[in-house]
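Sharing a chain and its predicted structure for anyone who wants a worked example. Both blocks are below, sequence first, tokens second.
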Amino acid sequence: MTRMFVDAWDPAYGASFEGGDGSDGPASPSSAQVDADVEVPAAQWAPIDVSPRVRCPDVVFLVDGVRRNDAGLWTAEEDGQSYAGLAASYAAGVVRCDLRNGVAELAGARVARGLFTASPSAGDVQAGSVRYEIHRVGGTGEASKLPAAVQAPLTALEIEISGEARHHGSDGADLLVVDGPLRNRRQLPRTIGYVKTQQKQYLPAQLTQVVTALRPGQRTPVFALGTVWGGWSWYLRLPGASGAPWSGIVRVECSPDLTPDEAIELAELSVATLPRFASSAYKDPRAPQNLVPIAGLERRLRGMLGDARVLHRALTLATARNR
């Protein structure tokens, strides 16, 4: 008899794993090359419990960013052409969790705004007290592709703010958790990427069975992921999942510049640390994957972006004056 589960993840956010059409998601294999023999031979793969010898770091930094589309724009060029534009606000911040003293605080946050367009003539837009700095995009600058252009400066902001937070008062006994893939943050020390939405299945079917067999607080062995960014990776299951095969499963990754032993050490550290931050379904629509400090940080950052209606009106007035 087929079993059914209700995912605690609010469907308004998509799904904690993406599948269904056969083109992506855990049910569909990725074309990336995978080396599963890093920690143990693939034939010996089994769920791994956290070692009692592993000690949580004294301090955990969690970094995340948010973005919002404030207004769509169009330019009218002197040669008669027109280009789409996007005025967007984005912010990055870091939460510092002192596990020894049970204290969490905002360690740093920064807001930026940009006007993203392929227009060769557009410049910064001053909308009241807010300035949207020009970000020239390549290609023809179709309106549908402009939201993706915000990711690069947002990632740069996340790197800047997290580096500053760790530089002050860190004695090396810490861990930095980046919400999302590590990508070009591989140079940051003692850092892991935390991927809470599974869009691709990287492992063959026999190893996927190890992933879905994980109990809360267990992880898979470390494997090498041959994607564009590369790196070491592993799966773990958070507590509070529904019991469905992929419920509560997250993928964690670290820099390919590390040795296998260093990657395994971070894997052990992650499974001893991350489950304590898992969210509850009655509090968070993306439970348990949306970690409690991250959820609080997102709320704080969205508040810092300002009132979208006020900014939209300011942009409307500013562009009307320039016509």
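Comments welcome. The longest helix spans residues 151-167.
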